[in-house]
């Protein structure tokens, strides 16, 4: 398990009420991830919360949009900017099902997000504590507080199930292809 020097990734220190609130918003992010899944996109979802209201939602649309920058967090931030008529998302918190990448971490710093809560850790691309922590680096002019592992089992399962299904489909496809080839031979 990854942790940062700041020590604020520890969801175990939450009160029951805090847990209820944060898990509620993470479930909203999971709902967004499910929308991506329906489009056969890698299921990642995000919401931006301001004063107990969702002001931005987003889910990964990389395949649908043919655009490498259409990550869930980017879309949620853009919508929040639009909703609040402000590039500055002070006092806004962002919930995302997977640890943010460098691009999204950058967007969070630029938009002055207050706190990011993420679910699963990303061993290959996470820059909110796994590979590095861009969000709390004091050399930037803004730091974003980070809490990882919110609804960890659910957010992990979301991705694991998706890739498992993908592998099964690929395998079935190969099998079907082989069957057709053998038929041709016969
Ligand atoms: Zn990203």
UniProtKB/TrEMBL annotation:
UniProt-annotated catalytic positions: 73 (proton donor)
Subunit structure of this chain's protein: Homodimer.
Molecular-function annotations in GO: tRNA-specific adenosine-34 deaminase activity; zinc ion binding
GO-annotated biological processes: tRNA wobble adenosine to inosine editing
Organism (species): Aerococcus suis
Broad EC category: hydrolase
Protein's UniProt name: tRNA-specific adenosine deaminase
Keywords: Hydrolase, Metal-binding, tRNA processing, Zinc
Catalysed reactions, as listed in the record: adenosine(34) in tRNA + H2O + H(+) = inosine(34) in tRNA + NH4(+)
Annotated CMP/dCMP-type deaminase domain residues: 20-139
Function: Catalyzes the deamination of adenosine to inosine at the wobble position 34 of tRNA(Arg2).
């Amino acid at each position: 398990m990854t942790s940062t020097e700041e020590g604020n990734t520890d969801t175990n220190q939450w009160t029951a009420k805090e847990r209820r609130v944060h898990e509620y918003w993470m479930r909203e992010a999971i709902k967004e991830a499910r929308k991506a899944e329906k489009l056969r996109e890698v299921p990642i979802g995000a919401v931006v919360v301001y004063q107990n209201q969702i002001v931005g939602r987003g889910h990964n649309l990389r395949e649908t949009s043919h655009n490498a920058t259409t990550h869930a967090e980017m879309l949620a931030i853009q919508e929040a900017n639009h909703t609040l008529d402000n590039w500055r998302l002070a006092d806004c918190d962002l919930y995302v099902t997977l640890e943010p990448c460098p691009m999204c971490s950058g967007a969070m710093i630029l938009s002055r997000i207050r706190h990011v809560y993420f679910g699963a850790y990303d061993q290959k691309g996470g820059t909110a504590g796994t590979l590095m922590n861009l969000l709390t680096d004091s050399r930037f002019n803004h730091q974003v507080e980070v809490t990882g592992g919110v609804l960890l089992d659910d957010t992990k399962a979301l991705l694991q199930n998706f890739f498992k299904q993908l592998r099964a489909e690929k395998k079935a496809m190969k099998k079907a292809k082989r069957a057709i080839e053998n038929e041709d031979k016969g």
